[in-house]
Amino acid sequence: MPQIIEFPDRPYIGVRGTITMTTFGLVADRIGEIIGWLAERGAHSAGAPFLRYESVDLAADRLVVQAGVPVAAPLEGEGDLFAAVLPAGRYATVTHHGHPDQLFGVVEALLKWGEEQGLAWDMTEKDGAEHWGCRLELFQTDPRVQPDLHEWDTGLQFRLA
């Protein structure tokens, strides 16, 4: 059952890419690189790595997505890694246990639940694309510890307007 949770600003280091539904790896696969980059600087993640959806245009199969790793204190970015902040606010959240392939249905259910609750998302539509203030998919399972995708926990956090 979804919940509404209030979050403070959360600093992170991220990388951005424009991808299609089949090229997620171009962005998502860089999470390990970000974690390594942090470790080289004596920093480490302060929470679950995530994908942040900035813009979603399913008709054109074009998504602008960030891969990010939360940090305890803000750091300077380097190269195409940048420092940013997940904005404070109220988020509708739900956790999915199972294969990430099933997330599409979980996202649909969360959006429908929000509609039924009369909630407004931090999202604007323009030229057929959804532009999100903060829409997150958090990887709560470490694949090195649990390689079975069917046992993964993935959190969704969608910011409310």
Automatic annotation (TrEMBL):
It comes from the Bacteria. Residues 1-161 form the AraC effector-binding domain. Transmembrane segments: none annotated. Pfam families: GyrI-like (PF06445). SUPFAM superfamilies: Probable bacterial effector-binding domain. InterPro entries: AraC_E-bd, GyrI-like, Reg_factor_effector_dom_sf. Gene3D superfamilies: Regulatory factor, effector binding domain. This is GyrI-like domain-containing protein. The lineage of its organism: Bacteria, Bacillati, Actinomycetota, Actinomycetes, Streptosporangiales.
